[in-house]
Design goal:
heterodimer; A: about 375 residues; mainly alpha; MetI-like fold; about 75% helix; about 0% strand; flat; B: about 290 residues; 2 domains; 12 helices; elongated
């Protein structure tokens, strides 16, 4: 056992012993009032035997699952958690960590396994949710400050229609249209600029500079110009996505080597043939890089632009008004939708990249 | 002549000049409709030169001309005392202090987490996928909630905004530093092992120095994004003070010139911050003997 493993094992065992001895609720009721939790505590305390007899690593996984399930299930009975409950929660967390430590210690073959690569972060994510739920409900944190994940989940399911309308307004209209227009026009601009080295030298430093500026500040101006509905948000998205795409495409068009270009010349290829058959494929990794950066920027731009004025629908509008009405669970539900939309968008761009630039070394991986 | 052909100054200046010309063209074009309306109502005769002069000097133009914005910036910086509520320095400082505090917190936490990640495999495998995934989600959307919730527990003013900045600048620093701390080659790490160096010594004598260029690269991104965080953090509290508040107040009252001047102030602030990080980068790398 490594040092950190024995520390975690001790924490697990001692935490469970403390949980058995100390009251689990603030009313002072002992752990035996919640038999399932007591079972977990006994199992955890019994795991101290590992310092004599080696236990297989999956035992720790089982203990942590048992801990998570029983501790959450006991919440309605004990209402306000006592010191023993927190000790048990800490012990269950330690067992989950111990499980991951020992799983990754099994050797390089296990570490490279696809399932393990997925399991470990999922395990962490689930435990964050478990601790969040237990702390919020156990300590009685008012839901206007931080709602428990279960309440957010209920809200996600119960107000699907509102969320879908917001999603359609913000994502399907402002983001997608703005993204297409912004990236498309920047792409065409880049090809035009590429023909003039003078413009290249003039625009590239400026483009790089502009991408460091808080462009989002242009939102109130564009809302004034294009009105409250989605076109103004799409305009913000166009401005935000334009410069990363321009800079990356220009850099990408310069990426093909002079040897390859000379080869095209010996084939008597014209400008357009060279562009389509050599330079654009060579620029594809750069272009996709910009498309990926822009997928996040576009969503941020559309949501923040809605803070400056919208019709009564849209993700940014919903976030800012529900915050004002202290419906924090609705805000979290909206943020969850935005997170899923953002990572799906990014994922789709990545999939398209894999499918179109499969030949490139950065995708091929050896 | 070679300088003209090779250098970047002339092309950049040309492009800038073209942008200014475009700006004036658009200002005249966009403001003309309202001005023509005004002429028609007053039944005045007008010439083209009148129209140009008037469109460039409206009180609430659709697009203010460049000189109007700069006069406004001059009036609200040099002409006003710094303590005045109408001084851009006053608002800029409020935003800047939140930005810098948040940037410091975010960078500190980011570096700390990166150190944990490279030293513990379980932390690495559990956290890194989430840190990478968090780059793809619009975390700025969470800003109003953080402000309002912290307000409800009695925290207001500088700290909530700084927390948003910290949150935004945190992720680029983590990703950059993990790459940086892993950048020493196996050869060098093996050499440290043959010297019987402890993990602590390997960290301070090899990993940390070789991660410094990565740290500065991510700090450049982080400082720009933490300014955005501070500006957006000023929106939900309802335009009290700061550059974000100037933007919001300008958009409530249709003060376009005020919006543009706040926008330019924010851009200047971002440029100064990024340039400062760049200068620090060059100085530190030179001092460490790593300058290219």
């Amino acid at each position: 056992m490594t040092r950190i493993q024995s520390a975690l094992a001790t924490l697990l065992g001692v935490g469970c012993l403390a949980g058995l001895a100390l009251p689990v609720s603030s009313m002072g009721s002992p752990v035996l009032d919640a038999p399932a939790v007591a079972l977990f505590a006994v199992c955890g305390a019994a795991s101290l035997v590992r310092f004599r007899i080696a236990l297989p690593f999956w035992i720790d996984g089982l203990i942590s699952v048992l801990g998570a399930v029983t501790l959450l299930a006991a919440l309605p009975e004990i209402e306000r958690a006592g010191i023993g409950y927190w000790m048990l929660l800490l012990a269950a967390w330690a067992s989950a960590w111990l499980f991951v430590e020992r799983l990754l210690d099994l050797g390089p073959i296990v570490r490279q396994d696809r399932f393990v690569r997925l399991l470990v972060p999922i395990c962490f994510g689930v435990w964050i949710l478990v601790v969040w739920e237990a702390v919020v409900r156990g300590a009685g944190i008012p839901s206007v400050l931080l709602p428990p994940p279960s309440a957010i989940g209920v809200r996600l399911l119960s107000s699907g229609a509102v969320l879908w309308a917001d999603f359609r307004q913000t994502f399907l209209q402002a983001v997608l249209i703005g993204y297409t227009l912004g990236c498309g026009s920047a792409f065409l601009c880049a090809i035009a600029i590429d023909r003039s080295p003078f413009l290249q030298r003039g625009l590239l430093p400026l483009g790089n500079f502009v991408s460091a500026l808080p462009i989002i500040g242009i939102a109130p101006i564009l809302v004034m110009w294009f009105g409250f509905d989605w076109p103004s948000k799409a305009a913000v998205v166009v401005v935000m996505t334009f410069f990363p795409m321009l800079v990356n495409t220009v850099a990408g068009l310069a990426a093909s080597g002079s040897m390859e270009r000379d080869l095209m010349r010996t084939y008597a290829a014209g400008y357009w043939q060279t562009l389509f058959k050599l330079r654009l494929p060579a620029a594809a990794p750069f272009i996709f890089n910009a498309l990926k950066i822009n997928s996040t920027l576009a969503l941020i731009g559309a949501i923040v632009a809605e803070f400056f004025g919208t019709p009564t629908v849209g993700m940014g509008f919903r976030i800012s008004t529900e915050v004002g009405r202290m419906n924090i669970d609705m805000v979290w539900a909206e943020i969850a939708v935005a997170a899923v939309a953002g990572s799906t968008f990014y994922g789709v761009v990545t999939l398209v990249e894999r499918a179109t630039t499969f030949w490139h070394p950065s995708v091929r991986r050896g | 002549m070679t300088r003209f052909r090779e250098g970047r100054t002339v092309p950049v200046l040309t492009v800038l000049a073209a942008l200014v010309v475009l700006w004036y063209g658009f200002a005249i074009y966009l403001n003309a409709a309202w001005q023509l309306d005004l002429y028609a109502k007053a039944k005045t005769d007008w010439t083209v030169s009148d129209l140009v002069a008037d469109t460039l000097s409206q009180d609430r133009p659709v697009l203010p001309a460049a000189h109007q914005v700069f006069v406004e910036i001059w009036n609200t910086t040099v002409e006003k005392p710094i303590t005045s509520k109408r001084s851009l320095f006053y608002h800029g400082w409020i935003t800047l202090s939140a930005t810098l505090l948040g940037f410091a917190i975010g960078t500190g936490l980011g570096v700390t987490l990166a150190v944990f990640i490279i030293h513990n495999r379980a932390v690495d495998r559990s956290l890194m996928p989430w840190v990478v995934a968090s780059q793809t989600i619009p975390i700025l959307a969470i800003a109003p909630m953080i402000i309002v919730v912290l307000n409800a527990v009695g925290l207001s003013g500088l700290l909530p905004k700084a927390l948003i900045s910290a949150y935004l600048s945190f992720f680029p620093v983590v990703v950059g530093m993990v790459t940086g701390l892993r950048s020493p080659e196996t050869q060098l790490l093996d050499l440290m092992r043959t010297y019987n160096a402890s993990a602590w010594q390997t960290f301070w004598k090899l990993r940390w120095p070789s991660s410094v260029p990565y740290l500065f690269t991510s700090m450049k991104v982080a400082v720009a994004i933490s300014l955005v965080g501070a500006i957006v953090g000023e929106l939900p509290t309802g335009a009290v003070a700061g550059l974000g508040a100037r933007l919001l107040a300008g958009s409530y009252y249709g003060q376009t010139i005020q919006i543009w001047s706040a926008l330019f102030a924010a851009a200047a602030l971002a440029a100064v911050l990024v340039i400062l990080v760049g200068i620090a980068n060059r100085l530190v790398l030179k001092r460490m003997g790593m300058a290219q």
